[in-house]
Automatic annotation (TrEMBL):
Gene3D superfamilies: VKOR domain (1.20.1440.130). The chain crosses the membrane at residues 12-33, 73-92, 99-118, 124-150, 170-191. It comes from the Bacteria. Keywords: Disulfide bond, Membrane, Oxidoreductase, Quinone, Redox-active center, Transmembrane, Transmembrane helix. It is a multi-pass membrane protein. It is found in: Membrane. The keyword Disulfide bond applies. Its main location: membrane. It holds the Pfam family VKOR. This is Vitamin K epoxide reductase domain-containing protein. Belongs to the VKOR family.
Length: 199
């Protein structure tokens, strides 16, 4: 079925994008401030450092914390600002073309891939859990699910009628799917880091 723009804007998705974007932005901004603090005083004790297992300093000071040559949190500050703006635009009545939705989907897919890689680095290489990073992980997963399932169920991403029906059903279960994803990540972290016994 070709994509046809619905007369009714996806208000629920818009509100969720604004809320998730605000949470992600707050986490990225806090990490950015912590990075500035570290640059000014490498020996500074950051408020997000709780123990050798839970803290931001190790992540921010590693090469993984600046993969593209600048601090990763700056990506979050920019990216989550875009997500908030898109949510607000939908609430104001904006209607986007298919290419825009596909571009958004590509962006959140890239964010999810980057987050999964960072999670792996935290679990398997750095052996530390960054609180603000985990907040970012927490919102990136459902944002990817919400945007992707919305695009599938509305036909923005081409698919059969069965695919659209499955996506529509899954869309109403995003909360449960997200919790399942969290449990998978927590299980991997526990098996690799044994964090429950090290806290």
């Amino acid at each position: 079925m070709p994509f046809t723009t619905s007369k009714k804007p996806p208000i629920g998705l818009a509100v969720f994008l604004i809320l998730a974007g605000a949470i992600g932005f707050a986490a990225a901004f806090a990490l950015t401030l912590d990075k500035f603090t570290m640059l000014a005083d490498p020996a500074a004790q950051l408020s997000c450092n709780f123990s050798v297992l839970v803290g931001c300093s190790t992540n921010l000071g590693s090469w993984q914390g600046a993969v593209f040559g600048f601090p990763n949190p700056l990506i979050g500050v920019a990216g989550w600002s875009v997500v908030i703006t898109i949510g607000a635009a939908i609430l104001s009545g904006a209607r986007f073309a298919r290419w825009f939705w596909l571009g958004l989907n590509l962006g959140v897919a890239g964010a999810l891939a980057f987050v999964i890689w960072l999670m792996g680095q935290s679990f398997f290489v750095l052996d530390v859990l960054c609180p603000w990073c985990m907040v970012t992980w927490t919102v990136t997963i459902p944002v990817f699910l919400a945007v992707t399932l919305y695009n599938l169920k509305t036909g923005i991403i081409p698919g059969s009628a069965r695919v659209r029906r499955l996506a529509a059903g899954a869309y109403s279960w995003i909360f449960v799917i997200t919790i399942a994803c969290y449990l998978v990540a927590a299980t991997i972290a526990q098996l690799q880091m044994d964090f429950l016994h090290r806290l």
